């Protein structure tokens, strides 16, 4: 299912959470939606998932608006930290209730994941710890088998080993039943190797939407004697620089970066991580990279 965002914007009273931009997301991709606190990620996801109405512009899912549109919504599942289950229900009943909404629901996936996360179907949703609630939400997201599955910071309270289990299962699910996953997270280093495309928001604006490998290829960390580093980076866009005792390390960003030339000048080079790019590209000063 193609997601088309056309001049989409959202105001909350006088606060403009999202400023108009266009974005198209194709079929069967794992997308990382990144940005600092308050950048507008949840607002964007809620409009994609038809939970809230845009103030202007539109989201089209295969040409249809998702808001109040059952036809579209049965193919979108959004899992966020704020999922709260009807606490009187047992896990089995929670799953039964949500499964009715999703035509491609996989009970087999649900049961497998409950076992993986050590959850029992007869357990009451009332007694779940934060991490267990998150594990149940993730189970629902993965078992929904919806064409678009959105995870908005889904793993509050989950320990590192449970999170890594989630990443493994997500990849396995993606390989067996390809679909679009959109993941918004602040734990970027943990999960960025799963991302095929990155959507980066800054202050309600779309900063960039690119394949992860293309974005990474636009960055270079160059280190060595300050004089040589300055010669190499002259005229280039510097995201970050640090110098100590004549040795300098600079992070540059742009097209046509040439690691071989840097090496020939005696400098060492490495690519930046997605997390570093998110941090430095979204710094407060007014830079736009789209
Ligand atoms: N219901 C609301 N009423 C008023 N303002 C809101 C509401 N929801 C979000 N906002 C504001 O809109 C902006 C974007 O919020 P949003 O939750 O989309 O950001 P985010 O990128 O998901 O942030 P975080 O990473 O902290 O979760 C913020 O300034 C926030 O305060």
UniProtKB/TrEMBL annotation:
Query: Which PROSITE patterns does the protein's record reference?
Result: ABC_TRANSPORTER_2
Domain of life here?
A: Bacteria
Provide the ABC transporter domain boundaries.
3-228
Q: InterPro entries annotated for this entry?
A: AAA+_ATPase (IPR003593), ABC_transporter-like_ATP-bd (IPR003439), ABC_Transporter_VariousFunc (IPR051782), P-loop_NTPase (IPR027417)
* Keywords for the protein's UniProt record, in alphabetical order: ATP-binding, Nucleotide-binding, Transport
What GO molecular function annotation could you give as one example from this UniProt entry?
ATP binding
Protein name according to UniProt:
ABC transporter domain-containing protein
């Amino acid at each position: 299912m193609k997601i088309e965002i056309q001049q989409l914007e959202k105001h909350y009273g006088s606060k403009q959470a999202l400023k108009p931009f266009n974005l198209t997301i194709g079929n069967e991709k794992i997308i990382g939606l990144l940005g600092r606190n308050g950048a507008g990620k949840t607002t964007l996801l809620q409009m994609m998932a038809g939970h809230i109405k845009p103030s202007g512009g539109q989201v089209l899912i295969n040409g249809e608006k998702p808001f109040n549109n059952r036809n579209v919504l049965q193919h979108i599942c959004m899992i966020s930290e704020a999922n709260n289950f009807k606490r009187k229900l047992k896990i089995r009943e929670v799953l039964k209730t949500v499964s009715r909404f999703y035509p491609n629901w996989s009970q087999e996936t649900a049961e497998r994941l409950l076992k993986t996360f050590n959850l029992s179907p007869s357990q009451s949703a009332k007694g779940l710890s934060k991490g267990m609630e998150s594990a149940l939400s993730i189970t629902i997201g993965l078992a929904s088998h919806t064409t678009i599955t959105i995870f908005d910071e889904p793993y509050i309270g989950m320990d590192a080993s449970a999170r890594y289990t989630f990443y493994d299962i997500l990849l396995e699910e993606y390989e067996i039943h390809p679909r679009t996953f959109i993941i918004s997270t602040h734990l970027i280093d943990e999960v960025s190797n799963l991302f095929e495309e990155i959507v980066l928001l800054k202050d309600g604006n779309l900063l960039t939407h690119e394949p992860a490998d293309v974005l990474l290829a636009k960055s270079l960390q160059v280190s060595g004697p300050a004089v040589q580093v300055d010669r190499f980076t002259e005229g280039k866009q510097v995201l970050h620089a640090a110098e100590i005792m004549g040795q300098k390390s600079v992070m540059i960003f742009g097209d046509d970066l040439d690691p071989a030339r840097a090496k020939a000048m005696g400098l060492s080079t490495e690519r930046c991580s997605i997390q570093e790019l998110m941090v430095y590209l979204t710094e407060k000063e007014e830079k736009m990279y789209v």
